[in-house]
Amino acid sequence: MVLTAVRGALGFLSRLPIGHDEAAWDAFRHTSAAFPLAGYVIGAFLAVPLLFPLPASIGAALFLVTVYGVTGINHIDGLADLGDAAVVHGAEKRRAVMKDTDVGVGALLAVSLLIAGLALAAVELVALPLGTIVAIVITAEVSAKLGMAGLAAFGSPAHEGLGSQLIEQTPRGFIIAVIVSIPAVALLWPPLVGIVTMSAGLLTTATVGQWSRSWLGGVSGDVFGAANELSRLVALHVGVVTWTLF
Known about the structure:
The structure is a single chain. The protein has twelve helices and no strands. The chain is 77% helix and 0% strand. The protein has one domain (2-245). Helix 5 (74-85) runs antiparallel to helix 6 (91-99), helix 5 crosses helix 12 (221-245) and helix 8 runs antiparallel to helix 10.
């Protein structure tokens, strides 16, 4: 059951060639732990381009290619939709804008800042020891996926759609997901670095969730995607800063 759920999670959260089927999707929708477990796998792939002895600019470019080559653009598309929604007034108008295929200024700004932030994070990461690079990237990815599990367990759907299908988790399932995520915290030393990195990602997701509740009336598929992108970005930067300080 768990392996099937993880396969479903990887099928939804990445472009890894693991196949897609209804059984895996259903198992994933009811297994919170599949989110962070998929985060370990995805994070390991994302760390690879940062391990080569290349100029920082080239490493950053390869990191960006790897991030969206492995995870696809569905999640960043969610961030773009939220960027457009943030610049209009009224929950109904915001939801309408998010369904619109046109790209507005809010979307362009949100995506541009994200890409710039990821590139800067990569430049910071390549200066660190190899083991620390892998640990921060994996911890950040697990944190982002654990945050998504939290949205699925505690959020309410803004409307019928992909997001509403994921919101069938339970608080008990989220506790299991938290337990599964503990090894990611232990990857970093001293332990405070891992705790702060994980917490930064979760706090980012909680902020996005609160914003979506107030501004959109609930959680949607776009909110899941935006939370994933922003949480990864914040956790990467916080991980680097915290490791450097401690």
